[in-house]
Write a structure and sequence with these properties.
Blueprint: H1 5-14, E1 36-41, H2 46-56, E2 64-67, H3 81-88, E3 94-98, H4 110-119, E4 127-129, E5 135-139, E6 148-152, E7 160-166, E8 168-170, E9 174-176, H5 178-186, H6 192-197, H7 208-226, E10 230-236, E11 259-263, H8 266-278, H9 282-294, H10 299-306, E12 314-318
Parallel strand pairs: 1-12, 2-3, 2-7, 3-4, 7-10
Antiparallel strand pairs: 1-11, 5-6, 8-9, 10-11
Helix pairs in contact: 2-3, 5-7, 7-10
Length: about 325
């Protein structure tokens, strides 16, 4: 099903209606067990990104997939190419990985996607469009919405995954962190993304809590597949309320840059990123908080806890 970008963007605004009231951020310290370590730095440069990777790289071995949002043409907020180039150069047997998209875009086809990748400057290493040769199904254990997720078949060629995420807002998800990067990002364009979005017959994009829950279930399929051989880095820089999938149509950046967070725990790194935004002064955080809460985005965190996907407790370690 072809979905126009206009409908995609409109859907986020109407998916759950007006700003929800009475929503509070899920609290840390509720889960059993020890706290996950989340490393943090306020420094935003290539050397800092490499340093953060070194802190969480322990179980990254073999062929390494670097899951990255490479962006729509000329997207203004995507991660700096030189930072990623310098990081990829120190990760043996690594490649950037992507999947085709569902909405109307040059990135909807493999040929068009490869052209956008070249145009945006991702030419310094292999970039694997994982669904170029079709899908593979991964089981979803314990899901209420999904029993399996169709991912790009090339995902099975990798031993480990580094989830390198530009943390920002998102039209449907409220925010896009490491969970969104692997769940939507690894789902195949033709099948998996439709499983997650559950499009309506008229091409609508239903959102709200059910979408967050499906996204968590998709992310759990990826995490279970790699069996601990994953690490997560969230870069809190150029944070528009818009996703990088909106390209040059993204809303202006209104939040300050906050730094880089890294962990081997997906829930902890996304929870810490959201907590840092909520810790900003009310007038500063307001645009992102409105985007998150109006989409019921905090359900990503609470459902990850319910699904046992990562830890709701974390220790923030500044480096």
């Amino acid at each position: 099903m072809s979905v126009s970008r206009r409908n995609f963007l409109k859907a986020g605004a109407v998916a759950v209606g007006t700003l929800a009231t009475g929503i509070s951020l899920p609290q840390r310290g509720m889960a059993e067990g020890k706290r996950a370590k989340v490393y943090a730095t306020k420094s935003l440069d290539s050397a800092s990104l490499r340093r953060m990777y070194e802190l969480v790289r322990g179980d990254i071995t073999g062929r390494v997939a670097i899951k990255l949002h490479t962006g729509e043409p000329d997207g203004p907020n995507i991660l700096p190419r030189d930072w990623v180039r310098d990081l990829q150069a120190v990760i043996p047997q690594s490649a950037i990985v992507e999947c085709n998209v569902l909405y109307s875009s040059p990135r909807q086809t493999t040929e068009g996607h490869r052209e956008v990748i070249r145009h945006n400057g991702w030419t310094f290493c292999p970039v694997d469009i994982m669904d170029a040769d079709g899908d593979a199904s991964l089981p979803v254990t314990g899901g209420r919405w999904l029993k399996e997720l169709a991912v790009g078949s090339h995902l099975l060629n990798y031993d480990s995954m580094l989830v390198l995420t530009h943390f920002k807002g998102h039209t449907l998800g409220g925010f896009g962190g490491s969970l969104k990067n692997i769940s939507i990002g690894c789902a195949s364009g033709s099948v998996g993304k439709q499983q997650l979005h559950r499009l309506t017959p008229d091409g609508g994009w239903p959102g709200g809590a059910p979408f967050m829950e499906r996204m968590v279930e998709g992310g759990k399929a990826i995490v279970d597949h790699f069996q601990g051989r994953m690490a997560y880095i969230n870069v809190l820089r150029n944070m528009s309320v818009s996703c990088d999938c909106e390209g040059v149509a993204a809303e202006p950046v209104r939040l300050p840059d906050l730094g880089i967070l890294a962990s081997t725990d997906i829930q902890a790194v996304d929870r810490a990123s959201v907590d840092m935004i909520y810790a900003l002064p009310p007038n500063v955080r307001a645009p992102m908080v409105e985007r998150i809460e109006s989409r019921e985005g905090l359900r990503q965190l609470s459902y990850m806890k319910e699904m046992g996907l990562g830890s709701s407790q974390y220790e923030l370690i500044w480096v």
